[in-house]
What does this fold into?
Amino acid sequence: MKFLPLVLANLGRHKRRTLLTIASVALALFLFASLRTVVTTLAATAQFGGARRLVATNATGIVFPLPLAYANRIKAVPGVEAVSWANWFGGRYGDGKRFFANFAVDAESYLAMYPEIVMPADQREAFLKDKSSALIGNRLLTQFGWRLGQNVTLQGTIFPGDWTFTVRAVYTPTDPVIGDDVLIFHHALFDERIGRAGIAGWYIVQIDHPDHAAGIAKAIDDMFRNSSAPTKTGTEREFQASFATMWGNVSLLMGTIGLAVVFAILLVTANAMMMSARERTGEVAVLKTIGFSDRTLFTLVMIEAGVVALTGAAIGLGGAKLLYRATNFNGLGFLPGFDVSTATLLLGAGVALGLMLASGIVPAVRAARLPVVQALRHVE
Amino acid sequence: MKIPILYNVRSVLQRPYSTALTALGVGLVVAVFIGMLALANGFRAALAHTGSPTNVLVLRRGADSELSSGLARDAASIIAASPHVATGADGRVLVSPEVYVLVPLRKVFDTTQVANVVVRGVSDQAWTVRSNLKVDVGQRPASGRAEICVGRRLALRFPHTGVGETLRFAGRDWTVVCHFSAGGSAFESEIWGENEQFMPVFRGEVFQSVTFRLKDAAAFEEARRALQDDKRITVDAHRESEFYTQQSQLLGLILGYLAWGITSIMAVGAVFGAVNTMYAAIAARAPEIAVLLTLGFKPLSVLASFLVESAIIAAVGGVIGCLLALPINGIVTSTTNWASFSEIAFSFRVTPLLLANGLVFAVVMGLIGGFFPAWRASRLQVVQALR
It folds into this structure.
């Protein structure tokens, strides 16, 4: 510790170089944290799912509906506690530039099944009572400046026409994966407007115990196997994961870029450390002459590299965490719950330590091994 | 008088490690830059080549994708009877009412991964309406049979898609009778069959879109107005090429922003590296610079000389970056196009223009990074430095 002033003095000698190097490290770790958070957020989306919730869709594909009449038959399957259904609406708001999810649900059973969707009791009641009302995520409220009680009109893309809803309730999700930018409205109204077609996009099935999931899913699928609309039932997690896999190789891409970023910055840092070390060859020789041990000199260089790497990392990682939290970033709605996780922060700190070792090792070893006589010869 | 560039080249060679590290840093940035733009490029190109400017795509009014559209049989006949539709060599009108659905298919390499693949039911004329279409292997599906033709890009990535094999979807077995290519467009990620075969197994008596060839390629606006003003049908007519380009906009934009965002942050880091290197170079060569100034070289020449030196280092990095990025050209990747919800396979496209952009980008990084150090060099106090 008593050498700290020496380390700081060395760092302060080329203030500009030190600052630029720290800034490079900070930028690199900011990028690293951002890219990794994209990956972890997508993974979290794929992991989402109540253990006791199954989802049944049309086996032919998610774009095909199921008959509404399935609800009662599914409810009769042993082990099924409750059934709810929903239909993707895909309405557009305004110029359609800002996309958000909107779908029709059987409100009462849906909210009962999703305790993650939280709202004040009076709003909940108002929403359930008014069949032409909508429940919206709190982000939509701030994004479009909507108010409770206001009418909001969506243009149907799949189901033509203008659809006007009264905003009766605003929810806050307890699980960020649910997304805070969804508009939910009544399936009853939906069914009425499309001429009582009696369709549901997907069923959500609440079961008595997670262990029974596979058996119940099979029982449901068997029941409809030979009908005109066979079902494909799986856990909610499988349903979510099927969307996540649609991103294809995004995770691999982000990982590769992250690696390139870290490596590029390693080069910058290592270069800066080596330059500093080279300039100080004479000084190191003097220090050795006045009794500094090889080990101390090795440590001093390493500490110097460590201060640069760790300061940069603290700024970059902390900056990423705070920035995304402050701006409530969610990747245009594609990345709900975008938040730099503790694991990412720790990994980033690990990267910084690696950076310290990689950039400091060559100059440190060189300093430790420096033959004094030879080095002093160059000192004027 | 100018300082010869040879001076800079030799100086750069004097510090091989430092130069190499800086150049490699710049190179990585350029490689990521080229790689990401190649991705965005490939995606845009796949969709841009999908549509033809001489074709018109008709959807139900308000539908923003083929998936959300629906047109009844009578609407399709009204459209087919439009005077703007071209006639083929055999005397039949070049129009294709199409069924467009998505089916989940498992992937070859990981059967737990499911992709939504476009299944398109077309009329016999569709193969002529889409002029870029070519059957590579096998024979086109015969009318009235449960036969399908698989896009070239799908054939490699999904099981049971070889010619002669049987693919099962929508509760039925379909015989694969051919593979087709379509100039690298998104059609190559689709499965085609006869519309009358698909209609009963999917959504019943409804088409999703009608595509026809214009009789007079210049008369698109008239054709569009005539269709949209027709009281019997409520449709939107799009120029096919514009429609597919628009489908690529959202994801193309995201990829583009991502490319610029990531590379500009990386670039700042690399510029800092170049700044460090150049300052160190100048500090080490202060006496040299003083000599140059004493010999009568103008400060401006010194400034230019060091800028050139920095640009040289960066250009070397740029070349390294291009070399690193080149191998990704042609690699096939896939993603879901969220505008149409379907999976599209496309290849990274590294174009000469992109490589040139990468080099320019590198040199710009070098010039920015070199400017302040070069400025300092040109303002050097001769007497002090020579001491």
Remarks:
- Chain A touches chain B through 53 residues (CB under 8 Å).
- Chain A has a mean pLDDT of 88.
